[in-house]
Amino acid sequence: MKFIDTAKIYIKSGKGGPGCSSMRREKFIEFGGPNGGDGGRGGSVFLEGDSRYSTLQDFRVHPHQKAGNGMAGMGDNKFGKSGADKIIKVPLGTIIINDETDEIITEILEEKQLLLLKGGKGGLGNTHFKSSTNRAPRYAQPGEPGQEMTLRLELKIMADVGLVGFPNAGKSTLISAISNARPKIADYPFTTLVPNLGVVQVSGFKSFVVADIPGIIENAHLGHGLGDQFLKHIQRTSVLAFLIDCSDLAEISPVETFNVLLNELKRFSEDLMEKQRIVLLSKVDAIRSDLNIESIINQFKKIGEELLPISSVSRKGLNKACIRLSTIVEAHKSKPVSDESM
Ligand SMILES: Nc1nc2c(ncn2[C@@H]2O[C@H](COP(=O)(O)OP(=O)(O)OP(=O)(O)O)[C@@H](O)[C@H]2O)c(=O)[nH]1
Ligand SMILES: [Mg+2]
Questions:
Q1: Comparing C-alpha atoms, which of 177, 172, 178, 175 is closest to residue 190?
Q2: What pLDDT is stored for residue 340 in this prediction?
Q3: By the 8 A CB rule, do 25 and 78 touch?
Q4: FRET partner for 307 with CA separation of 20 to 30 A, picked from 34, 114, 299, 341?
Q5: Structural contact between residues 264 and 216, judged by C-beta atoms closer than 8 angstroms
Q6: Segment (H or E) for 168
Q7: Residue of the nearest CA to atom 21 in ligand 1?
Q8: Domains (ranges, CATH) in the chain?
Q9: Residue 52, exposed/middle/buried by CB under 10 A (0-12, 13-18, 19+)?
């Protein structure tokens, strides 16, 4: 399935069916009187978060989402059928924006239903308009119209941990070593073109979700590489894991690499600087001969950063790193909710 994280949709609730104007005409019943039934109500439009969805792709194919119209009331005091509701399922993390006013209507963060547009009420049949002065009213109410709206949907995926790193740093290899995700892995840059999510389960902890996003390079904010478009998908994480390659493939020092990444994140959003972070020194099984793990740990300590060495190939340090990440995620979740989730 294609990963699409923006879409524009047109939604419309159903109109109410008209009330019916009808008179009883039966043999032996004098002064039959009105018996027009009410029109059915129009269907409403709901949004529902669904964790099984991970892209807005469907809406590119089906941008028009309409609920059904109510049916007309009938003689014999029969109600018209109600129009079918339209339930639009979106991935968790979808932001709903009114396209006309640019106002954020809501964010879908849970598997809950939310009413967006109410269907029109059905019109009353002429039965309702009988009175002492008018015993045979011909008037029946029309149904209420439906409502319509154009929405912009923007998906910011929900993950607890965001993996950031240069292309080829080993992000996808790591997520496949610690989670259920099986992304494509290859020894060339920009193998990953869309975010991947994986669930990590460490015994004794609640599971957490990791997002592997496409690699970031220097000047990503100017559009270099794949640009910084995917950074929005780590805006909702509670912790960022910077993956830094220390093998022969890495051309600059770990600290320099870290600073380049940090600067790109900062240029994208200062808010990312507020997030707790941890540095994972990747591919230590194949560490460059001029580098030494202890001294790299110390260099990072000096700039106030926590660093853990790992290898997704030999699995060295993976358990420790996952326990650390679980601990941070749990601590973050037990904190009172603040508005930093945006
Ligand atoms: N020796 C060694 N090689 C690794 C390790 N982790 C990843 N690699 C190799 O590094 C290369 C890049 O790995 P990926 O996981 O695709 O890297 P990525 O960061 O996802 O790359 P992009 O998706 O292109 O940004 C692959 O050839 C992996 O086999 C490791 O721990 N040790
Ligand atoms: Mg990758």
A1: 172
A2: 47
A3: no
A4: 341
A5: yes
A6: none
A7: 168
A8: 1-155 (2.70.210.12), 161-336 (3.40.50.300)
A9: exposed
User: What are the structure tokens assigned to 324, written together?
Assistant: 């650390």
- Other beta carbons within 10 angstroms of residue 100's beta carbon come to 10
Beta-sheet strand order (sheet of 196-200):
196-200, 208-212, 161-165, 239-245, 276-282, 307-309
Q: Could you tell me the distance, in angstroms and rounded to a whole number, from the CA of residue 171 to the centre of ligand 2?
A: 5
Nearest CA to ligand 1 atom 16: 185
Ligand 1 close to Cβ of residue 306 (< 6 A): no
Structure tokens belonging to residue 221: 């904010």
Contact 341, 236 (CB under 8 A): yes
Distance of CA 38 to the CA centre of its chain: 40
167 lines ligand 1 (CB under 6 A): yes
pLDDT of 337 reads: 59
CB 139 within 8 A of CB 36: no
> φ, ψ for residue 300 (rounded to 5)?
-70, -35
Dig out the tokens for 177 from the structure: 């070593």
Q: Residue 162 in contact with residue 209, Cβ under 8 Å?
A: no
Q: Average pLDDT for residues 170-177, to the nearest whole number?
A: 95
Mean pLDDT confidence for 87-103: 95
Write the pLDDT tens digit of every residue in 47-88. 999 988 888 988 989 999 999 999 999 999 999 999 999 999
Say whether pTM exceeds 0.70: yes
Q: At what angle do helices 254-268 and 293-302 cross, to 10 degrees?
A: 40
* pLDDT for 182 beyond 90: no
Q: 334 — phi, psi (to 5°)?
A: -85, -10
Contacts of 304 (CB under 8 A, 6+ apart): none
Sign of the C-alpha dihedral, residues 248, 251, 255, 257?
negative
Question: Which residue type, as a one-letter code, is found at position 278?
Answer: I
